[in-house]
Amino acid sequence: MFTSKYGLATAALALLAAVGPLDAFVPSSPVSRRVATAARMSTEVEPDTNVAQTEDTSREKVMTFSYDMSMEEKYEKPTYPGTGNGESGDAGEYDIIVIGSGMGGLTAAALSAKYGSKVLCLESHIKIGGSAHTFSRMHDGGKYSFEVGPSIFEGLDKPSLNPLRMIFDILEETMPVKTYKGLGFWTPEGYWRFPIGSKKAFEELLMEQCGDDGPKAVREWNALRDRLKTLGGSTTAVALLNLRQDAGFLSTTAGALPFVATNPDVFLDLPLTFDDLSKTVDEIVTVPFVRNFIDCMCIFCGFPAKGAMTAHILYILERFFEEDAAFSVPIGGTSQLGETLQRGLEKFGGKLQLNAHVDEILIEDGRAVGVRLKNGNVCTARKAVVSNATPFDTVKLMPKKEGEPTDLTKWRDDMGTLPRHGAISHLF
Fold it and tell me: Rounded to two decimals, what is the model's pTM?
């Protein structure tokens, strides 16, 4: 589970507490290891490989969100029927090859196709979308579908600042959604509902949930909003599609010149945009409920406040309290996100190939010129190879070779020094 000095992920902990003892779900804890050991001794069964892989968390042993397509596994992993063997994919010549059909990969592929490039998107799995898809199970004659990634969004119901909605509009595609004005939480504090579209309603929630610390919680929350107000305003002046984590940010903000002219301090605070959000939170917020709420909002981006860029919460601080704000849920499940992008890709002549695992990115004279598929076929790229795989998976696709660019060698070496994220537990 999450570990944090604020007591992170109260909602997830509440789910675990409702189902059974926490140790039953955290096999790496000392208590659970003793329980697991005693159970194995008493029943004389083989060790649980799912438990074992939580006890050895070296990088080579940690499971990722990608599917293991190796024919000869180095160690035992759970297997998932129907994920394909990665043996598909034809040879060909393209302008741009995209590895992976997550949101980033599909977006890069679809926009490149719209702008005139001949594009191939390769996906190891038999489903598109990365974590944005569903799986189904039959039970007592009924079919139940489960989300495996984020399933609630804001701003997909109409043209908005949501970058995903911007992409849909650019591709001239639509995706039906159902909208809600709040989001319910079950936590150790009990059930409560996060209201969206009303600053007053949120302050009333803080007063209700924080007891004697209610007034202090409201003050700290508004102080955080005030501290980040100028940066938050920049998210409405500069399209979030232009939000970059380098000096190139300045070259993509021409449309925000009127805002910058009246708010020159935005440049003084610019480094804060990409800094760790927890630094700002630690300076201002002390009430536990507010800190947990901020962590929970950041988890929608994949991190708690510690590890998340400040930019992740700027949109929430501003947009979620506008009167027309609403949570959007894709009708038909999160898989509709990928299918909408796929329609845009194929409408402009792009090609998507499933069950096609990339074994190697081909490098010539210091640049990527194509890929070799698991089945041996080679696809060449005249302009670029784009990877939507994780950095750790991508670097494995470029085995070390004599005379390779020094930047590539440094990048490969740096991969081993990056910290791993905390685990996220999904309970279906």
Answer: 0.72
